[in-house]
Write a structure and sequence with these properties.
about 230 residues; alpha/beta; Rossmann fold; 2 domains; 4-stranded antiparallel β-sheet; 12 strands
Amino acid sequence: MARVKVLYVEDELFLGKIVRESLESRDYEVVLVSHGNEVLKAFEKHTFDICILDIMLPGKDGLSLAKEIRLLNPEIPIIFLTAKIQTEDLVSGFKAGGNDYIRKPFSMEELIARMQNLLRLKSSRESVDGNSVHQISTFNFYPAIMELRQQDQLIKLSHKENELLKLLVINRHKSIERAMILQEIWGDDHFFNSRNLDVYITRLRGYFKADPDIQIITLKGIGYRFVY
């Protein structure tokens, strides 16, 4: 099995070396870059599985880099590893395309756990995308062509409906937080996006109404669980 390849951007050389060596001891392959202006060169030269970015960097800052990386690879997980952890920093990071945020100082155990979680979600999403059909009780879901079928009934899904249903399928029988859904589908948890999520959940429930074995259960104060 190929090793997970990590792009790690950190201008504190001592910290960068320690984290790189710690990751390498756990069998990760790490490319360490210390200057913001060198990041895209590394990204174009290598095929990375995950990015860990500091925000305060010489040259281009981490937020600008995340936006540029997102244009090159919309799916790659991005973790911000930084001392900047105020609410406005979190919002800026997520809007720039980040998937997670870890405050310095941090433990390697936390970093590894968050990396593994994002890589697992990425792998699950690729599995859903790669399969032509997913059986959801009496329905067949075709994510590649955004269709839901039950016998002779055909439902054409919108892009957001398709992405939301994929996320529910990936997390079948698991609790999935509203904040996580909003971040994955809309990019932030703004109030209006939260209301939009309610609308899309209602739509999906309506599509599955013909089969009582399929339920999108509301977990009060948490999110949802998709069972079938």
